[in-house]
Amino acid sequence: MSDIGAEPGAADGASVAAIGTEYKFGFHEPEKHTFRTKVGLSRHVVEEISEQKNEPPWMRDYRLRALDIFLKKPMPNWGGELANIDFEGITYYLRPTDQQYNTWDMVPEEIKRTYDKLGIPEDERKFLGGVGAQYDSEVVYHNLKSKWEALGVIFTSPEEAVLHHPDLVKEYFGTIIPAADNKFAALNGAVWSGGSFIYVPKGVKVDIPLQAYFRINAKNMGQFERTLIIVDEGAFVHYVEGCTAPVYSSDSLHSAVVEIIVKAGARCRYTTIQNWSTNVYNLVTKRAVAYRDATMEWVDGNLGSKLTMKYPAVFMMEPGARGEILSMAFAGKGQHQDAGAKVVHCAPHTSSVITSKSVCRNGGRTSYRGLCKVMPGAEDCKSRVVCDALLLDDKSRSDTYPYIEVETEKVTVEHEASVSKISEEQLFYLMSRGLTEDEAAKMIVTGFIEPLIKQLPMEYAVEMNRLIELEMEGTVG
Amino acid sequence: MSDTPLLAIEDLHVKVAEKEILKGLTLSLNRGEVHVLLGQNGTGKSTLAYAIAGHPSYKVTQGRILLDGDDLLAMAADERARRGVFLAFQSPVAVPGVSVANFLRTAYQARFHGAAAKATDKTVGQAGGFSVIEFQKKLMAAMKGLKVDPALATRYLNDGFSGGEKKQMEILQMSLLRPTLAMLDETDSGLDLDKLHVVGEGAGRLAQEYNMGVLVITHYKRLLTYIKPTRAHLLLDGKIAVSMGPELVDELEEKGFDYLKATYVTKSA
């Protein structure tokens, strides 16, 4: 069972077993680097990254072992077209001193125009454009930080966590998604940089969403973030990452890993909106484990990118665990959104719901790819999958690849899928009330994705609707 | 004041899916008039309403439709709506995910405040900026006037609505959009007597209050007790076979289509 590395339907019980086991710390003497490469991947690059971050040997060794795994693993041969990724043409790590060479002038006009239309303030634009300017929200972050700290909540970068909370990192890092899980998880293991580390102590309910946005701003967003969230027994947290504005990236590969542990009676919600520039391969592995009576919710919105392959997963490990995944994808010209979800029922009396909504237009392609697996002995499980696709024209394409593997009797698994073209009768009805064809199409599309939008925090919902409207401009007529 | 009728239809031929439904229909309607279209199913009553509203599947192959003397056929459906053409649908379609309040606000803005509205019709839109609060008040008042359950405002448009709620929603839109030409396509069908009263009374009041021209399509007399017709037309095979005063409605109700055909059509032929 893996997220990027194997097709969701492929039998792969080994890594289910691997969940919860610790990775073995390797013992590698560091080699002194004699030169530094900026472009391409090598042992030296990985060591340089580790050294820049002042990491202890155990993390550096983890990176090097992950690199070995990456080099050995074959490319996935399913999902989207990956053959054009040039691993040697990518800059895997920018030292902070390199970032000043990133200038506003390098950000493409098209993206600057979108910022204009979205009305994003200048400073924020520069940050989103990868220019890395200081930004006011730093202050907001620090104010919130002291409040969280009083509760014992840790919300920091994974780099800080490695240095200051090594026990927690050693206990959980790479246990949900081992480097050997898939080629891109291995790559991330080798070159990860940035992301978030969150620990919520027993019984603590964090009432306002933790937003990556506030924290990462001073640094580069990063191509290979690593996020680890541990929600201890009876605790609650809502983590929000990403933003609706397109993130310009000079490099064409984004490959993040997100691991989440939701302990007994706890609940975690993870909301992502991503809108990468259309040159980016967005290959992300996201997986959570939920223990007794715990709830994990993924809300995942994907816009932009050239190809996205992303299937947030919930493994329900103990009775009463619940997984819920809301996935939304929007594909325009030249884009392929291969998105979906995975739910794995490892224990009896567990339940899951997957809702997927996708929209494609102007030759774009969306695929729903999902897995619902019920392990032997996991009786009395319920799973419901609903995926709806909306096509705005005849040039676009949508496919559904649902994999259902049930190895137990007495389970309820429902799957509903629909693909529809935008309805002429709906368009006419709205136009007969004075809306232009564009306005009518926008209204139908925003209505279509409304079930996802209403799950978003208010400010995201507003931006998301605005963004859909922008994406829809000149769609019809 | 001019002698130009609100709606002038001349020798209208309309095809739907390559089949000719309207075969040379001529009709003239002024503001303040209520014309009722009578006729058996398939004679082209709804086709006429759709053709006037501008449904793309209803192809006009010959003839003209003028609104206040302007060529309606040169305009897309949305422009016609902003000019004051309104069709209360017989079976309005559901638009899931779009709340009634959001839809009504957008439609209201399009008709009276949008850039497009100002470009099409100089007589509306000069009210200046659109105020959400003002609109909200208007909406509440309109809903109250038509006895629409306020809870409907937050529901998705026509999604899971009862037949009666759908018809109320159509008339609510008529109330907010204040058309100059209102077409009611079997607005009375599927309504119980209580709802018929509310919907019929509301439509009749609005038509009078705003001096609309009204085209009513119905099989029954009941709705016409609320919206008093000034003229009645009998459609037969895609043409108006008989045009006369509202007494035609009574005759139809009492004696049926065959009698009307025998009495008027064969006589005049």
Q: Number of helix segments of chain B?
A: 8
H and E order of chain B: EEEHEEHEEHHHEHEHEEEH
User: Largest interface: which pair?
Assistant: A-B, 24 and 33 residues
Specify the number of helices of chain A: 13
Q: How big is the Rg of chain A?
A: 22 Å
pLDDT below 50 for ≥5 consecutive residues: which ranges of chain A? 9-37, 96-102, 129-140, 214-221
Q: Provide the structure class of chain B.
A: alpha/beta
Oligomerization category of the chains in this entry: heterodimer
Q: Kindly state the mean pLDDT of chain B as a whole number? A: 90
Beta-strand content estimate of chain B = 25-35%
Helix residue percentage of chain A: 25-40%
Number of strands of chain B: 12
What's the number of structural domains of chain B? 1
How big a fraction of the residues of chain A is strand? Answer: 25-35%
The total number of structural domains of chain A is 1
| Category from helices, strands and their pairing of chain A | alpha/beta
Distance between the termini of chain A: 45 Å
* Secondary structure: helix percent of chain B: 25-40%
Please tell me about this protein's structure.
The complex is a heterodimer of chains A (477) and B (269). Chain A is an alpha/beta fold. Chain A is built from 13 helices and 19 strands. Chain A has helices spanning 13-18, 43-52, 57-72, 109-118, 122-128, 137-151, 158-164, 166-172, 183-191, 212-216, 424-431, 437-453, 458-472; strands at residues 154-156, 197-200, 210-211, 226-231, 236-242, 253-254, 257-262, 267-276, 281-290, 295-304, 307-310, 313-316, 322-331, 336-345, 351-360, 365-374, 381-391, 397-406, 411-421. In chain A, strands 1, 2, 4, 6, 7, 9, 11, 12, 14, 16 and 18 form an eleven-stranded mixed sheet that branches. In chain A, α2 packs antiparallel against α3, α7 (158-164) crosses α8 and α11 (424-431) packs across α12. The radius of gyration of chain A is 22 Å and the shape is globular. Mean pLDDT of chain A is 81; it is low at 9-37, 96-102, 129-140 and 214-221. With 269 residues, chain B is of the alpha/beta class. Chain B has a single domain (7-92, 165-268), classed as 3-Layer(aba) Sandwich (Rossmann fold), CATH 3.40.50. Chain B is globular, with a radius of gyration of 18 Å. The termini of chain B are far apart. In chain B, the strands form three sheets. In chain B, strands 6-9-10-3-11-12 form a six-stranded mixed sheet, sandwiched between helices. Chain B has a four-stranded antiparallel sheet with strand order 2-1-4-5. Chain B has eight helices and twelve strands. At the A-B interface, α11 and α12 of A face α2, β7, α3 and β8 of B.
